[in-house]
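Hello again, I could really use a second opinion on something today. I've been staring at a protein lately and its backbone has me curious. You're getting the sequence in one-letter code plus the fold written as tokens. I'd be grateful if you could look everything over and explain what you see. No rush at all, and the record is pasted right below:
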Amino acid sequence: MFHWLIEFDKKAFLYLNGIHSPAWDNVMWWVSGNTSWTPLYVILLVIIIYRERPYRFIFTILFIAIAVTLSDQISNLIKIVAERPRPTWNPEIMELVHKVNDYKANKPFGFVSNHAANAFCLSTFLANQFRSYRWGFFLFTWAVVVSYSRVYLGVHYPLDVICGAVLGALTGIQCYVFKIRTAVYIERRVEIRKEKKAEKMKKHNFA
């Protein structure tokens, strides 16, 4: 049923993966690295701490961790179920794939992309958290570049990263909404306790 889509995906991959140069090989290798963006994560952490009320930033960081963990683990589960080989593991086209540093990824299955899911999950959550068009544009541009790097390196088809991006965005927005509702509920409960405590103190003073 989806044979035409799979074939189109392969052709799109070979076209995109075929656009390369030694300079871009180095750039995309760095972009795709797990530790390359550590300075960005530190900056985002500092901004969250600065913008949030005292101690509330811990609550925000907790839900970010939950969101990214969910997107990452759901991506792994889909890989196990779908069992779609990566381009570098696909006997049909593996010899046509442009690989950087002979990298083919350790795990053979690639649908969906964890990099795309996690990047779009974080971007969606923080774009809603910051409520800034500039930050939103920057974060989603970053997520697109990270996702594209996986196609460039030959370890994911375009459909892998597109579906990963959708999964990540949905996970990010759902966790953000749940975070807001949870925060409102907790703060309301705290207010109610304070009101009850104030009433008790008032009655005690008049006794």
In short: Residues 3-176 form one domain. The chain has a mean pLDDT of 92. The chain has one domain: 3-176.
